[in-house]
């Protein structure tokens, strides 16, 4: 196995991880920003007010994107299994 092949596999793995994590985190980040602006505009300093909307949006993102997340992970795994002969030989 060449170092270039290992770096290519590592790069692809990081790309899959970043895609999957950003699909879950970015909606919560957007809602957190909206709630923070609302709290700043109304001078409400309740910490739990920002937690519940972010939790709900994160759970909704997991529910809506769950199929895509699993499919992406399965495609990556199948690609890695298909590369075993190339890596070993």
Automatic annotation (TrEMBL):
The keyword Ion transport does not apply. PANTHER family: FLAGELLAR BIOSYNTHETIC PROTEIN FLIQ. GO terms for cellular component: bacterial-type flagellum basal body; plasma membrane. It is a multi-pass membrane protein. InterPro entries: Bac_export_3 (IPR002191), FliQ (IPR006305). GO terms for biological process: bacterial-type flagellum assembly; protein secretion. Role in flagellar biosynthesis. The chain crosses the membrane at residues 12-39, 51-70. Belongs to the FliQ/MopD/SpaQ family. It comes from the Bacteria. This is Flagellar biosynthetic protein FliQ. Keywords: Bacterial flagellum, Cell membrane, Cell projection, Cilium, Flagellum, Membrane, Transmembrane, Transmembrane helix. The gene is fliQ. It is found in: Cell membrane; Bacterial flagellum basal body. It holds the Pfam family Bac_export_3.
